[in-house]
Amino acid sequence: MNRPRLPTPASWLTTAATLLLAASVAAPTAVHAQPGRDAMTAERRAEMQARQARALLADMRQERPIDALNSVWIEELTWMEVRDALRDGTTTAVVATGGIEQNGPYLATGKHNYVLYGACEGIARTLGNALCAPVIKLVPEGDIDNPTGHMRYPGTISLREETYRAVLEDVASSLRAHGFTDIVLIGDSGGNQGGMAAVAEMLNKRWRGAARAHYVPEFYRYREVHEWMGTELGITEPMNEGIHDDFVITAIMMVENPETVRHAQRVKAGKASINGVSIADEAATVETGKKLLQFRVDRTVEAIRAAMAKSN
C-alpha cells in the first residue's frame, strides 16, 4: 500500500511561513473595511499581514542563541527548542491522560498524574525520538449534575465525555500541525481508554497517513504489573482493603514524591501499609516503585514500537 510521504519538520515550518507570506501578499485589495470595525484599508491589511509573515519566517530561520534544556516535556522547552528537536528527528509526541479523583484516605487526588510524570519521562527517553505533551489532568470521572462514580466524593473534577474527546483531538491536532508525525495516546485510568481509542481512530481517518495516532492500551494493563511484581520481585498482596489504592500505585507514586501518599503521616499513625504490604521503609518502597515503573515503561515502549511498525 502506497502511503503519502510525511513532510520533514524543518521543511514543513519553512514552507508554512513561505505560504503564509505568499498568501498575504496576494490578498485581494478591492475589499473595503466593514463599517464599525476599523478604517484600515484592504491594502494596509494585506501589507500588515505580509509584514507579520516575513517576521514569522525570520523567526523560523533564527538560530537558537543558547544551549537547549535537557528535558522531554514540551511545557518546559522554549519554542526554539521544540523546533530544533523536530528538525533533529524528534517527531513522536506522547499524550498522557490522568485524572483528579478520590483515591481513598491516603493518596492525593492527582494519583494518576503523579504516575504519568515518571512514566512519560521514561517512555520518551527510552524511545529516543519523543517529547511529552503536558499531562491531561482532567478526564471523565462520572456525571456532574447528578454525581455518579468518583464525582460522589469531594475533590473529584470531571469532564463530559465529549469535552474530553474534544481536548484530545485539539491537543493531537496541534502537535500534528507543528510537524509531529506520530502521536501516542496513553492513559492511567480505566475511564480514559475508550475516548482515546475513539479519537485515535477518528484522527487516522482524517489524517489519511499524513500523520499517525496510536492508542496504546498496554500502558494501562495493571494486572500484568501485579503479576510481574509477584513473579520477579516476590511481592504479593495478601488482602484487599477495599479502597481505591494498592501497593503498585503507591510505590510508583512514592518515586515521584512520598508526600503524595502521606508517607510520614501514615508511619506516625501506624498506617504504613496497603493491602497487607508494608511501605514503612521509604527507601525500599521507592526502589521497588522504580522497578515497577521501569517495567511499565519497557512494556509500553515495546507496544509503541510495534504499533508504529504496523502502521508503516
Question: What does the model show?
Answer:
Helix 6 links the parallel strand 3 and strand 4 (212-215). The chain has two domains: 9-28 and 39-61; 69-312, Rossmann fold (3-Layer(aba) Sandwich). Mean pLDDT is 91; it is low at 1-7 and 29-33. Helix 1 (9-25) crosses helix 3 (79-87) and helix 4 crosses helix 10. It is α/β, with parallel strands linked by helices and 312 residues long. It has ten helices and six strands.
- What is the typical, i.e. mean, pLDDT? 91
| Total domains | 2
CATH class of the largest domain: Alpha Beta
* CA radius of gyration: 24 Å
Fourth CATH level, the homologous superfamily of the largest domain: Creatininase
Short description:
Helix content is 49%, strand content 7%. The protein is an alpha/beta fold and 312 residues long.
Key attributes of the depicted protein:
single chain; 312 residues; alpha/beta; Rossmann fold; 2 domains; four-stranded parallel β-sheet; two-stranded antiparallel sheet; 10 helices; 49% helix; elongated; disordered N terminus
